[in-house]
Amino acid sequence: MAKGPGQYSDIGKKARDLLFKDYNSDQKFTITTYSPTGVAITSSGTRKGDLFVADVNTQLKNKNITTDVKVDTNSNVFTTVTVNEPAPGLKAIFNFKVPDQRSGKVELQYLHDYAGIRTSVGLTANPVVNFSGVVGSNTLGLGADVSFDTKVGELKTLNAGLNFTKDDLVASLTVNDKGDALIASYFHLVSPLTNTAVGAEVTHRFSTNENTLTLGTQHALDPLTTVKARVNNFGKANALIQHEWRPKSFFTISGEVDTKAIEKSAKVGLSLALKP
In 3D, which of 119, 112, 124 has the Cα closest to residue 146? Predict the structure, then answer.
């Protein structure tokens, strides 16, 4: 079990990954190659109906500094420089996008046995300031996530969350969207040997009085093949099978059926991730 409460984004992450990660209704591919000098080049593409979106990412590592440069089909250039451990538990991140001159941002992350802090500020005259923090232990964590727009002088984001971890069980409760959404989630690793797990997430929106319930499970058929399934109270049922056909290379097929409109065609997604 990891030490400390982690970052705010870790609250409810186990259940979110089980219920939503790797489900896809598009066609996606990702191919990573490495040059003799250690530069990693990742090409990815996604087809959504008649639209095709692609990007190329180049990653260079030098000691504790990692530089990522990504170019997309709209000729945008995204650059991220990450400095790992300039001091114990600290990570510094600087990123910007060309040609957007107002996109620059500096972020600091800090992890401790009893706290996790993340703060960022935009490099503009009137920046958006973000802060999130969690205090507690590897069993219980309490945190908040706040974003303030200095240009208009108002809060953009105000979230709070609680995370409880005990052995193979993780439960969380968050209040998001300035108090409009209450989300409770649950994750239970039933069998570590077969990576069998069950999870659930319930969302209630006070503004619309709408409830969303999602239930899901996963199971490893063998050490290289995993199946997952989920269903929600709106009748949407999803399933996927993922196979690691070589180390760090995955082939995933997923599908979605609307059980309340069974006459509609099922949505099918394919994903291929290839690494040498």
Answer: 119
Asked whether 219 and 230 are in contact (CB, 8 A), the reply is no
Measure the CA–CA gap between 208 and 178, rounded to whole angstroms: 14
Q: Render pLDDT for 67-107 as a digit per residue (tens, 0 to 9).
A: 999 999 888 999 999 999 999 999 999 999 988 878 899 99
The C-alpha atoms of residue 95 and residue 195 are separated, in whole angstroms, by: 36
Please calculate the CA angle 95-99-103 and round it to the nearest 5 degrees.
Answer: 35
What is the reported pTM? 0.91
Q: Are the beta carbons of 116 and 7 closer than 8 angstroms? A: yes
User: Could you tell me which of 107, 95, 96 has the C-alpha nearest to residue 132?
Assistant: 107
* 249: amino acid identity, one letter: S
**Residue 97 C-alpha from the chain's centroid:** 21
Query: With contact defined as beta carbons under 8 Å apart, do 224 and 234 qualify?
Result: no
Residue 254's nearest CA partner among 228, 275, 236, 232 is 228
